[in-house]
Amino acid sequence: MDPGIIFIIFFLIFLIVMFIIEPIRIDIIALSIPVILVLTNFWTEVSPTEAISGFSSSATVTIGSMFIISAGVEKSGIIQALGDKISKWTGDSDFKLLFFIILFAGLIAGVINNTPVVALFIPLVIGIARRKNSSPSKFLIPLSYAAMMGGLTTLIGTSTNILASDILARRTGEGFSMFEFTHLGLLVLFIGAIYMLFLGRKILPDRIKPEVEVTEQFKMGEYLTETIIRKDSPLIGKTLEETEQRMDFDLNIIQLNRSGEKFLKPLTNKTIQEGDHLIVRTDPKNLVKLIRTHRMKISSETPTRESLNVKKESQSLVEIVLPYGSFLEGQTLEEVNFLENYECDILAIRQGEELTHKRMGDITLKAGNVLLLTAGEKTIERLKKDRNFIVSSELISKEYRPSKVITSLAILAGVVLLAALNIVPIVISSLGGVIAMVVTNTLKPVELSEAINWNVIFLLAGLIPLGIAMDNTGTAEFMARQVLRLEGMLSPLMFLMVFYFLTVIFANLIGNNASVILMLPIALDAAGQLGLNPLAFALAVTFAASSAFLTPMSYQTNMMVYGPGNYKFQDFFWTGLPLQLILLFVVPLLINLFWGL
C-alpha cells in the first residue's frame, strides 16, 4: 500500500476520534487539518494553495452568503408572526401543534438555512407548549428532525447540500441544480412527518413536566436556599460583595429581602442587617458551614420562580440556550467575564443530561447548553437581541423590521430563481443577495459578520482540503476498491444502501459535513468503478448525512434542542431509530426510481 494512503487512513481515524471526544472545539480541529496536510505533504501531496482552498471554495462562500440572507429574512419578523398564528390555529391540541411545527419548520428550512430556523422556533415552541400546559420535550426533537429533512428539499436548505454539490462538481464537472432533489426531499419530509405524528411522539418522553417549577427542573432545591441573619451574626455591618469574596467556598448571594422589599444585584453598597433574608446558591455541605460559622438560620420559605422575580426591579428567572456558533462555545463564563458584563446571576448549567450547580465559571461551554439566570429587564433585552443566545423561557420580542418582509422575501426569491434558471451560479446569486440586503437596508452593514456562523465556515474551510488529500493520494479510490470486494454478492441497489448506511454511521458520530467530506469521494469512485450513475451515489451520501437522527452530535440542530428539551442521549436514539431504518430502505429505492443506477 502507498505510504500516502496509509498516512491518510490513520489521519482519518485520528480525526474521527477527535471529533467524537472533542477535546477542543471542532472548528479548531478542522482548522488544524490544512496545516498538518502541508507539513506532511511528502505523503499527502497537498500544496499550500490547495490547503487554503477551503476558504475560497464556492461552497464556503455560498454558505456564508446564505447565512446573511437568512438573517435578513429573520430580521423581518415573519417567522415570529407565523409563531403567533400557529398558537391560534392549534388551540389545545398537541397533535395540531406538532403538525404545524413540522409543516412550517420543514418548509421554511428548504429556503433559509435550517440552523437559524431551529434557533427561531425553539422559544416559540417552548412558549406555546407552556401556555397549553404541554411538555416542550414532546416537540423539540420533532422540530429538529423536521428542519433536517426540510433542508433536503433544495440546494440551499443546508450547508451539507452545497458542500456535496461542490465536491460533485469538482469530480464530474456538474453539481446539483437548485431543485435537483426537491421531490425526493418532500417525500422524505412527508414520511418523517407521518412517523413523528403517529409513532415518534408516543416514543418521546415528557422530560419537562409542564406543571413543574423551573427551579425544580434544574434541581435547585438542594442549592438555592433562603437564609436569615441572626442578631449575633458576624456578617452584620459587612457588605454583600465583601461577604461573597471572603468566603473560602463557592457561594453566590442571589437576592436580599429586607422588610418586605427585595433587592438584586448590583448589591455593592448594601450592608447586612439583623433579620435580613439572603437567597444564596451553594451546595448542602457548604450551606451547613455557612449557617454554623456565620450564625444564620434557614427560612421555612423555599425559593421559587415567583419569589425570585422582582417586579419593582424587573428581575426575572430566565433560561438561555447557547446556539451552534455562539462565541461562548469552547470558553468558560470566567474567561469572558459573563456575569460582570451582563449583570446577572447564574444558578445552574444543563449540559445534555448533566446539571451543574457548583464552580460554574470554570465549565467549558458547548452548543446546546442551557443556563438558568436571574437577570434584570435590560439584561434580558440584551440577551434577546444577541445572536449568541436564545432566550428559551419566553417568547422573544426582538426588534424586528416588518416593513422589510416583502423586500427580504423578494431578495431570497431572486437568489433562488437566478440560480435555478442557470442565469448565474448559486455562489454569484447569493453574493448578489447579500449586496441587495444591505442596499435595501434590510440588514445593516454591521450585522453582516454577526449573521455568519463562523464555526461552520471554519469547519468547511478546514475539511475541504482533506477531500483533496484523499483524491491526490488515491485514498478514496483505495477505499472504494475495498467496498467493491462485495461486488459479486451485492446488487447495484444494495451498494447504494451500503453507502447510505456507512454515511449515516459516520454522520451520527462525527457530524453531517465531515461525513460528506469522508464518504462522497469514496462513493463517487465506487460508482465509477462499477459503471453506475455517480449522481445517484452522491444523492445517497447527501441525504444520509443530513438524516442522521440517532445522536445529538450528528447535527447542529439536534445539539440546539438537547438542553432545552432536557433530553437524555437515549431519547435521540430510540426516537430516531425507526425513522432511520425506514429511510435506509426508502431513500435508495426512491433514488433508483427517480434517477436510475
From TrEMBL:
GO BP of this protein: potassium ion transport
InterPro entries reported in the protein's UniProt record: Cit_transptr-like_dom, DASS-Related_Transporters, Na/sul_symport_CS, RCK_C, RCK_C_sf
Subcellular location: Membrane
Membrane in keyword set: yes
Gene Ontology CC annotations of this record: plasma membrane
Keyword flag S-adenosyl-L-methionine: no
Ranges for domain RCK C-terminal: 212-296, 305-389
Sorted UniProt keywords: Membrane, Repeat, Transmembrane, Transmembrane helix, Transport
TM region positions: 6-21, 28-44, 97-127, 139-164, 176-199, 406-439, 451-469, 490-510, 530-551, 572-595
Organism domain of life: Bacteria
Membrane-topology descriptor: Multi-pass membrane protein
GO molecular function (one): monoatomic cation transmembrane transporter activity
Record's protein name: SLC13 family permease
Biological source species: Halonatronomonas betaini
